[in-house]
């Protein structure tokens, strides 16, 4: 079954690449430049965003959705817990896609609604500190294990990617539990293979 990854090596597409490496899925790569989008790519994703994957005609966009889809499409990789044990898996996968990304983006943009509980209630994350503290509690509770199961899952990958970039660029504080979690996920062979492939694309002309 053919998979095409639409990505840019300086984007969230690195998460999708990592997930593809974890599940062992062969794939073609189309690099999308940061200029105007071509009609061909807009037919894949009208939002014009990367990453996107096309899996034998099934198009999936949004990083968390791509991670969840690939975990289900390639069950032998074990990147999703059994159906009956997916509560924590879905919780932390979509916590990172929703509250965490919103909180980090809002802080980076200088958007702050202050301590008004009504305004905080209108947001998907409440406030930045509460979001970061909630994630710290989850990672701390996991200890040297993982967030959602007794083994590494797509939730760990996705949360780990956010923590990697956030602690690197200063949008998430370098708390000890975050730094340790990042070290463990980035030590995975699939993470290193994915990074090497995306780093090699930096000098390759893109197709927009």
User: What is the overall pLDDT average?
Assistant: 94
Supply the helix-strand structural class.
alpha+beta
**Count of the domains:** 2
Tally of individual helices: 9
Radius of gyration: 17 Å
Determine the oligomeric state from the structure. single chain
Q: What can you see in these coordinates?
A:
It is a single chain. This protein is of the alpha+beta class and 208 residues long. The protein has 2 domains: 3-78 and 192-203, Glutaredoxin (3-Layer(aba) Sandwich); 83-151 and 153-187, Glutathione S-transferase Yfyf (Class Pi), Chain A, domain 2 (Up-down Bundle), CATH 1.20.1050. It has helices at 13-23, 39-44, 63-73, 87-109, 117-122, 128-142, 154-169, 176-186, 189-200; strands at 3-7, 28-31, 52-55, 58-61. A 4-stranded mixed β-sheet has the order 2-1-3-4, with helices on one face. Strand 1 (3-7), helix 1 and strand 2 form a beta-alpha-beta unit. The chain is globular, with a radius of gyration of 17 Å. The mean pLDDT is 94.
